[in-house]
Amino acid sequence: MDQLLQHIFNALVLGGTYALLGIGLTLIFGIMNVVNFTHGALYTFGGYAMYLAAVALGLNFFVALPVALVAGLVLGAIIEFTLLRPLRRSDIDTTMLVMIGAGIIMQSGTLWIFGGVAKAVPTPFPAQPLTFGPVSLSYVNLFVLCAAVALIAITYFTINGTKLGRAMRATFQDHDTAALMGVNVSLIYTATFAIGSALASAAGALLGPVYVVTPQMGDLAAVKAFAIVILGGLGSISGATIGGFILAFAEELGAGYISSGYRDAMGFLIIIAVLLVKPTGLFARAERIG
Amino acid sequence: MTRFIAPLFLVVFALLPLGLTDPYLLNALIITGILTICAMSLNLLLGFTGQLSLGHVAFFGIGAYVSALTALGFDVSLPFGLRVTHEGGSPLLGFVLAIVLTGLCGYLIGRLSFRVRGAYFVIVTISFAEVVRLVALNWVELTQGPLALTAIPNMVLPVPSIGDVALRSKMQNYYLVLAVGVASYLLIARLVASRFGRAMRGLKENESLALSLGINATRTLTVAATVSAAMAGAAGSLYAHYIRIIDPDVFLFSYTVTMVIMVVSGGKGTLAGPLVGGIIFGLLPVALRPVMAPEAQWIVYGAILIAILFLMPRGIVPALEGLGERIAARRKAGDKPTDAMPAKMGANP
Amino acid sequence: MSTTSSSAILNVEHVGMKFGGLTAIADLHFDVHEGEILSLIGPNGAGKTTAFNIMTGFLKPTQGRVLFRGRDLSQTRPNEIARLGLARTFQRTSVFADDSVRDNVLIGLHRFGDDTRATALLDRLFPTPAARRAENAVRERAEAIIDMVGLSARAGDKAGSLSYGEQRLVGFALALAVEPKMLLLDEPVSGMNASETQGFVRLIRKVRDEGVTILLVEHDMPMVMEVSDRIVCLNYGRLIAEGPPEAIRTDPKVIEAYLGKSAAKLEQREVAHA
């Protein structure tokens, strides 16, 4: 029972960052019909941006975090502008392959620049965890959970409560109609990709200090983000949020009670289950029939 | 003119080792050949049915492990007190089992993943490969995990009147890979030209229309996935018995990426495409190795992939075909004025 | 088999279709008789294409059922329906654009002369004499179909490079390749000029005379009136009239729903299309 509480807390922390990853990916797919294979690399990028800002530049932890987020935003905008914009009329397979190429370049570039040795990012939080009986909560984990929830809330507000969000939703519904209504679809695409990238980068910047930063940290993150998005239904933001937490709980409880080696296989088991039961994901909106 | 590519390659690569003594280069050619077989098999799915499978390395790796374990033997305990022991046997049996079992995996994954299309399909295939890698890493009793399977015997072929011959030299392995490559090529060429190939093409170009013509999408795609997987499994077996040591890294996504680059650059959906792409990207590391680190090489590959998709999205072979057609058309136009269009089909307003 | 008339090849039984809260078709009920040319007409958005998609298994109705030669199609997938002998063409030009006209028809003939499975597999992998004979037979059949629709001169050209009218003929040839007992044609002459349309009318009649029942959705009213044995008229997803062309032409409900009210709209559409 005590162990269960500990697992639940761990799953919440993990779920927050998973949700960030999933929302970014699903947003980009839903609005742009692009499967973003740079997502894992952007997550890694966030980790290294955090490392650079906090260690190399010596910035305060709480300043370095938004710096990493903004760096992800800018990088995302650049990727969209240079690689995706010229391919607007290409099919989804072409953009997928281009994104794979870009992901390879980013990951190999990171390895080239920083080498394969893991980097640690120091945090200002006390190492001594908060303990409630047998359950221990580290301060940095608590902070990650709060920051993730705050970012998710900001994303929801941006999409549901702002003019930009309204334009994004219109583009999501039907980009031709949105364009007719005066939405600058090109700008929305750039903004969407930038926001999605910033969320991935933020997830990396948040988890980097919890674990360590390596050039390969994005590989598993990407696979998990894919699983989350399938679980929630491609293009569904609330689906990705819930999916992120479901995956985190499945992994945490699976690793705790079944086998820790297969922790990372949980996502695939979930995907199989979803495919067997409801192939379009649990929370996907009904496809329009045109 | 592109239909001469395959015979030309065959002649060149059949004769090449006669004048080639550098073992490093021969080794690179063998690995290139194995990866090219993988690329050909991936092309059956990616090129001829239009389904972007990004988990292809799973079948390569499963083939390698099945074949190696058949030859080495294993002793594992399963749940419910079951225990499976295998003494170790012929690598040739391993080769056959690799084909059969990867074909079966391809069938099962096909049945499951062809319930969805597009992005979903891609993600399912990637996740599958990732899980297989995790199994190889964690099922230590069977696979030795990260410690790798070592001392895998070389492939053994029964030769009439001589008996069993173990293929120890690079030269022998080279010709074995070439033979399997030729067989794979011919198999794909036959499949594509058959009614089954027509069904695949119909599905790739317009699935609704294909369905309306009675083409069974699930069955056609599943058969393609099965053949494709079995072929990659055969390549994996060749790899295991040539390299003689395998670890869970045979499941790395970067191998899939290499195969995809080979197919896309050469020309997906063409018979010669994976050959051209395979040779280029199989031998490029040989050229790049002296001048740059592996990370930098990967940056170059990524850049080439993007460049090809931007500049030559259909790949090298179709680009050559287009060039050939244009030259032929110009020559024809010079000979005589353009053919009169049938009069009854007036142009539309 | 319920109370279906013995000559009916297709029964549409109280079919309803809702998308979300929107009713596309409500309680549609009619029969198609064996060997006739029946036209389904109605203004845009009346539910004609939706009805087509239900009959050919591309959509599952939310109510009612469709019987083809007495067999309930509710659980049947589109490719199985095609194999039962119910073929269709699509409203938007639908061909395999990157392939030649000949290859298009060959794809359509993918099952032609299908034989027992074990030897068929062998034939696929090795160029046996039987395989060669079968291949020649398929190619002959393809040429015959291409000749029938009048595209012999363009057999080697890419389907995507043909005029719209010719592409419709390719679509028609594809449907013929299935060797259907009944053909559903969705606006087959849109994009055709007057002489092509006349040629197409002759073609439909010829196919019908060979024993193929035809269900037609078409906006070209003179063509519909000329070719149809019977007409079914829909409006807002409901059947509002059914009968021979003369009766439909003078039916006040049809005139109000179709010809009268939307005549101006139709004209606008023509302008927009030109």
UniProtKB/TrEMBL annotation, chain A:
Pfam families: BPD_transp_2 (PF02653)
Locations listed in the record: Cell membrane
Transmembrane segments: 12-31, 51-84, 96-118, 138-159, 187-213, 225-250, 262-284
Family according to the record: Belongs to the binding-protein-dependent transport system permease family. LivHM subfamily.
GO BP terms, alphabetized: amino acid transport
Species the sequence originates in: Xanthobacter flavus
InterPro entries recorded: ABC_transp_permease, BCAA_transport_permease
Top-rank lineage group of the source organism: Bacteria
One of the record's GO molecular function terms: transmembrane transporter activity
Protein's recorded name: Branched-chain amino acid ABC transporter permease
Membrane topology: Multi-pass membrane protein
Keyword field: Amino-acid transport, Cell membrane, Membrane, Transmembrane, Transmembrane helix, Transport
Gene Ontology CC terms: plasma membrane
UniProtKB/TrEMBL annotation, chain C:
GO cellular component, one term: plasma membrane
Origin superkingdom: Bacteria
Keyword Cytoplasm annotated: no
InterPro entries linked: AAA+_ATPase (IPR003593), ABC_AA/LPS_Transport (IPR051120), ABC_transporter-like_ATP-bd (IPR003439), ABC_transporter-like_CS (IPR017871), BCA_ABC_TP_C (IPR032823), P-loop_NTPase (IPR027417)
Secreted is among the record's keywords: no
Sequence ranges assigned to domain ABC transporter in this UniProt record: 10-261
Pfam families, A to Z: ABC_tran, BCA_ABC_TP_C
UniProt keyword terms in alphabetical order: ATP-binding, Nucleotide-binding, Transport
Entry's Gene Ontology molecular function annotations: ATP binding; ATP hydrolysis activity
Family classification: Belongs to the ABC transporter superfamily.
Protein name: ABC transporter ATP-binding protein
Source organism (scientific name): Xanthobacter flavus
